[in-house]
Amino acid sequence: MRLPTTASSLILLVSAGTPRAAAAGPPLTDHRNCGCYLTNGTESRYFSHHYFFDFRSQSQYAGVPTAIASADLSGSAPRTSKYFSNSEFANTWIVGNWDNSARQRKDATVRMHMSPNNIYIEANNDKGRKPETWLTLRTQRMENFQTAAELETMYFNKFVSVRMMARTIGAPGAISALFTYKHSNVLAEVQESDFEVRTRDPDNIVHYTNQPGVTTEGETDPLATTNATLPDGLKWTDWAVHRLDWTPERSTWFVNGRQVAQNAYQTPRDPSKVILNLWSDGGKWSGNMSVTDAAYLQIQWFEMVFNTTDVNFKPSSHAANDPLVCEAVCSIDETPNQGQPVMLWNNAAVRVVERRSFTGWIPVLVLGMFAWR
Length: 373
Ligand SMILES: *[C@@H]1O[C@H](CO)[C@@H](O)[C@H](O)[C@H]1NC(C)=O
Ligand SMILES: *[C@@H]1O[C@H](CO)[C@@H](O)[C@H](O)[C@H]1NC(C)=O
Ligand SMILES: *[C@@H]1O[C@H](CO)[C@@H](O)[C@H](O)[C@H]1NC(C)=O
Ligand SMILES: *[C@@H]1O[C@H](CO)[C@@H](O)[C@H](O)[C@H]1NC(C)=O
Description:
Layout: H1 5-16, E1 36-38, E2 46-47, E3 49-54, H2 71-74, H3 87-90, E4 93-95, E5 112-114, E6 119-123, E7 133-141, E8 146-153, E9 160-170, E10 175-182, E11 191-198, E12 205-211, E13 225-229, E14 240-246, E15 251-255, E16 258-263, E17 273-279, E18 294-306, E19 328-331, E20 342-346, E21 350-357, E22 360-367
Bound molecules: 2-acetamido-2-deoxy-beta-D-glucopyranose (NAG) (4 copies).
């Protein structure tokens, strides 16, 4: 766009008098001011809703519960702190409590039980270091079974851009995963877009798959999976932002803002849950864990923008105002304050644009009447 000279100098004068003139990049705003969110990257899309869960300063809820030794008591275990019953969390997430007797993978050799007891806020014990806390999902091999952890969104989404600042640590034999999931009893009809870490892999290899990655005959489908090397010398034991964009045409995966894989094959089509889990069942994919060994998926923050067609969906405090008429376009990418959106532009009243100046990028408020085009 080009601004008429007179208008732009006028605007510079106007904006010089506002505190925003000193800020770099588009201005921070409140999610209530956002009509929709525009993501960046090769599959840049608009989304109507936003979730952000920040686990970094939750010291009052921190505590590591001992794993429950009985499979039968695992599913009914209480949530490990009040954090998980606060309305924002409890109205967004289903805490897994199922066992694999009913949902067993064909090659599983170990009974596995999801337990709310394996999901907790953990203090960072490296004193003086940030963050104070994170969310931990744990899986541990007990005497007679594998105890594991899962969080699943309550509502179905149709297209998402989901991110988490996370790492996976611990013993070989576990799978940690962030994925979209549409269940089917027929393997070939499962729709699922996955980011997975296998804790028995080399520490720089991760897996990106549009499932099913294996046929009913057990043959792997090479088109379904990208086995990627993490960029910039990263290991999956390092903290990094892992991102999955599920758009109508394809799935795209990023690490720390860099695209590492993309797949248009078997892209999920129907409304899906977003799931985080950490598990092991003694099958070919996860492998076995040795008794008493454990692994952990640790998450500092979780964020997603998404659309939904779910009739049960109740916009929470993290939902955008008016999904159908989007005049105020926000970004969760360009923000200096993770979780708080910035306003890219607002057609309704004021447009916010960035202009190169001698002092670097400064936002310039352009009155609607001077708008470009
Ligand atoms: C999300 O919904 C909005 C409003 O209906 C639409 O404009 C946008 O294209 C949708 N995004 C995707 C990725 O389908
Ligand atoms: C990816 O890695 C897995 C596990 O090592 C292997 O079984 C699979 O064949 C690989 N797939 C591709 C497409 O390289
Ligand atoms: C999105 O924007 C952020 C902030 O400018 C940047 O760090 C990141 O690399 C961008 N991601 C992509 C995929 O372009
Ligand atoms: C896991 O251990 C069981 C026996 O406890 C064995 O039958 C199975 O083959 C092992 N799985 C793998 C992938 O090694």
